[in-house]
Amino acid sequence: MRYRFKGFVLAFLLAVLAGNLNAQETYAGAVGYKLGAGLSNVVLSWVELPKCMINGYNNSHYDEGVPGVAWGLISGISFGIGHTVGRLFTGALDVITFPVPTKPIPQPAFVWQDFRGDTTYGEAFVLYNE
User: Fold this and answer.
1) What is the pLDDT of residues 100-117, one digit of tens each?
2) SS3 content of the chain, % helix, strand, coil (to 5)
3) Please, which pLDDT band fits residue 130 given cuts at 50, 70 and 90?
4) What is the pTM of this model?
5) CA 52 – CA 66 distance, rounded (Å)
6) Which of helix, strand or coil describes residue 118?
7) How far apart are CA 126 and CA 45, in angstroms?
């Protein structure tokens, strides 16, 4: 059991490192990027919750005080749950279909990219050549 977990962690780290090389011109680079993005989205999808709470607070029109915090919590939890589920399932779909060199569905591809922006979901199965 320990060796399986260590193997999974090693495979995850290698996929993320290979995916971050931005060598998407080749088949191996595009597939590695998609696998790394998919694995990181499955494992780190929960980061959407605090991201949405922070963005909800920052986007509130209250200068300071409880209404901004309350709005950040309410909107952050509701949008965060939706984006967590969305990133989890699109990440799983990217992992399952990683041999097909398409762009990752969630934009930004990794949850830590453009942390101040909202997550969007692009077209599914768009090839890199298009």
Assistant:
1) 888 888 888 888 888 788
2) 60, 5, 35
3) low
4) 0.69
5) 17
6) coil
7) 22
Q: Helix axis angle, 48-59 relative to 66-96, nearest 10°?
A: 140
pLDDT digits (tens, 9 = 90+) for 45-80: 999 888 888 888 887 765 555 566 777 788 888 989
CA 95 from chain center: how many Å? Answer: 12
Cβ of 96: how many Cβ atoms within 10 Å?
10
SS3 annotation, the chain? CHHHHHHHHHHHHHHHHHHCCCCCCCHHHHHHHHHHHHHHHHHCHHHHHHHHHHHHHHHCCCCCCHHHHHHHHHHHHHHHHHHHHHHHHHHHHHHHCCCCCECCCEECCCCCCCCCCCCEECCCCCECCC
Number of other residues whose CB lies within 10 A of the CB of residue 26:
11
Domain boundaries defined on the chain: 2-121
Q: Checking DSSP bridges between strand 120-121 and strand 106-107, what pairing results, if any? A: antiparallel
